[in-house]
Amino acid sequence: MALVTGAAGMVMIPPASAAADLTVAAALAAQDGRSASVAGYVVGQPVATDSVLRSGFTADTAIAIADQATETGTTRMLYVQVTSGFRASFGLRTNPGLLGRRIVVAGQLTAYFAHGGLKEPTSMSAGATEPGDYYAAAAGRTGPALRAALHGIIANQTRISYAQVWTALQQTDQDPANASNVILLYSGRSQSKSSNGGNANDWNREHVWPQSHGDFGTAAGPGTDLHHLRPEDVTVNSTRGNKDFDTGGSTVAECPGCRTDADSFEPRDAVKGDVARMLMYMAIRYEGGDGWPDLELNDSVTNGSAPRTGRLSVLLQWHRADPPDAVERRRNDVIFSTWQHNRNPFIDHPEWVVAIWG
């Protein structure tokens, strides 16, 4: 194993015979014409040595990848040539949903756009975004056995503070079309990252699983778990309050497509599945064995302070009607790679919802 000084500092470079994929940092430090396989997240379309488009893509001939899905510094990006045979699947103009996805590309490590690059790719793939063995313990299981295996996998996480959540949400919920903004969960509005706080029209930290449903507060644990914390308009967050999820009610101001009544809240169609999978994650992650309450889903909308949230039958409908999309997968990747180092299994494997809840 060699140590090479590159743009990112001292980087370990595996020998040419190593089977492991290089990081982007390692690839940038090894611009010597060797053939290598590199894994990274798609972060834009290079158009010049120090310029990358993150929206309004103009061509399918190049992509930039980085070690973090939220990377904005071009010096930490690898510029990848997309030759004609790969453009239909990996060109950003044709496939804008690739932004934020993890891919693996093999080719020649050499300058492209007068920048650290990879040219003449021999393979490009965008498969499952989790490490290959992450869910090994869950393979072939179903029902209670699958539930127990998934809990054991995702309980291994890095806990963050409630103050850190502000910074994390600016990355996890970044607007793909505007790196200065976040997308609000229920409202769908793109809003400046800096306009967070407690005043009207600010955005704040929405607990999709209400804190009061189990009384877990904001100490590191369920109260700070990014897999269910999202940015939301202060007023809309207040309207949702600690209500369970169901259909029907009156329209919600500043939240197109949302409805609410005395005991339930219905989000817009585009995020109904997201909401369902966030709650399902919480029910599997927090089983009562690590000092936190045993969170469970049920078919009630009158759960009060019990560690329960519903309505399960409706959440199952929402999961089926609104499957995981590129935005949801990217968010899962950022939480895994940068913050908590655990994943929401129901984004990676939607079929496991049926295997556990039917």
UniProtKB/TrEMBL annotation:
SUPFAM superfamilies for this protein: His-Me finger endonucleases
Tree of life domain: Bacteria
Disordered: annotated span: 191-248
GO MF annotation terms: hydrolase activity; nuclease activity
One Pfam entry name: Endonuclease_1
Record's signal peptide: 1-18
Positions with biased composition (Polar residues): 191-202
Domain Endonuclease YhcR N-terminal: 22-125
Keywords: Hydrolase, Nuclease, Signal
Protein name, UniProt field: Endonuclease YhcR N-terminal domain-containing protein
Organism field: Virgisporangium aurantiacum
